[in-house]
Amino acid sequence: MIQLINRLISFVSEMKEDRKEIILDTAERLFSENGFDGASTRAIANEAGVNMAMLNYYFGSKEGLYKAVFERKFSGFHQTLINLNEENISSWDKLHKYIDLYVERVTTQSCFQRLMQHEISFQQRSGVGGFIVEYMNKNLNEIRKVLQEGINNGSFREIDIDLTISTIFGTKYYLVHLSGIASALFGKDLDNAEVLNQEIKPRLKKHLLELLDSYLKK
């Protein structure tokens, strides 16, 4: 009987977690498509197949749900970077893996990236913009560790780490957040997901890796 009760509790817990993930998936898509103001909690609840009471139970408010969407994205990626830094591989291999993960992330989530940048730029909701910046800095510190490790063990030459990180992220910013200007430069529509993933993504990976290899080598 105790085992049956425990399995039942586990089943209910898994169902709740699955429902929560469905709400977050739906909210992420609608916030990315319509922005914070354009995506109503009622529309999110309807598309997620839950009632408003359940949505409010999990997240408390629209802003709570909005923040949870960002937190899920950032915390998962942050843990991935921590795991990468703990791998028993060379600093070069860590850097190459980081670039691969980073480019995959920003090109497959371009709508979310724009939503994030909009929030940082306009600081419309108290606490959300600061929360995003805080998590971004945590992720930046992981790439900082890779670069510093490479300098310390002699794999990389002495460099300006801050500007190196700015170069990596500045390239992404130009392609994703200034896509209209970048599209004119490339002669391609960078708002087109197929163009971004099939043409721009491999070029971006190649460019950043070659740029960093040539810059970091002694």
TrEMBL record:
Protein name in UniProt: TetR/AcrR family transcriptional regulator
SUPFAM superfamilies attached to this UniProt entry: Homeodomain-like (SSF46689), Tetracyclin repressor-like, C-terminal domain (SSF48498)
Keyword annotations of the record: DNA-binding
Xref: InterPro entries: DNA-bd_HTH_TetR-type_CS, Homeodomain-like_sf, HTH-type_TetR-like_transc_reg, HTH_TetR, NicS_C, Tet_transcr_reg_TetR-rel_C_sf
UniProt DNA-binding residue ranges: 40-59
UniProt KW DNA-binding keyword: yes
Pfam families membership: TetR_C_29, TetR_N
A GO molecular function held by the record: DNA binding
Domain spans labelled HTH tetR-type: 17-77
Gene3D superfamilies the UniProt entry points to: Tetracycline Repressor, domain 2
